[in-house]
UniProtKB/TrEMBL annotation:
The lineage of its organism: Bacteria, Bacillati, Bacillota, Bacilli, Bacillales. InterPro entries: DNA_brk_join_enz, Integrase-like_cat_sf, Integrase_catalytic. This is Tyrosine-type recombinase/integrase. Residues 33-97 form the Tyr recombinase domain. Gene3D superfamilies: Intergrase catalytic core. It comes from the Bacteria.
Length: 97
């Protein structure tokens, strides 16, 4: 749809996905070794190590990742204006629109 819109707006002349076809036999094997999740107790140990032995702000960074559900890029891109110190929270971007 984005390419169709780009054509409509005269940004591009041709949709590069027009002649693309998905492979018929797309086999996906989930490799469980690549999936890494910490159990509750493992997370507690990890955060304690981050706090006691980590670099400055490691504990805060990893705690925010673990408890907010934010992705690394979202946490890294936070700015001071995104913090609400009076309510001890992050602003909800949807509320700002």
């Amino acid at each position: 749809m984005i390419f169709d819109y780009a054509i409509e707006m005269d940004y591009i002349n041709k949709n590069p996905t027009d002649n693309y076809k998905l492979p018929k036999n797309l086999e996906y094997e989930e490799n469980e070794e690549k999936l890494v999740f910490l159990e509750k107790e493992e997370l507690k140990v990890f955060l304690k190590i981050a706090k006691d032995e980590g670099l400055p702000n490691d504990y805060e960074f990893f705690s925010l990742l673990a408890y907010s559900g934010m992705r690394i890029g979202e946490v890294i891109s936070l700015q001071w204006k995104d913090l609400d110190f009076q309510n001890s929270s992050l602003f909800n971007y949807e509320d700002r629109l």
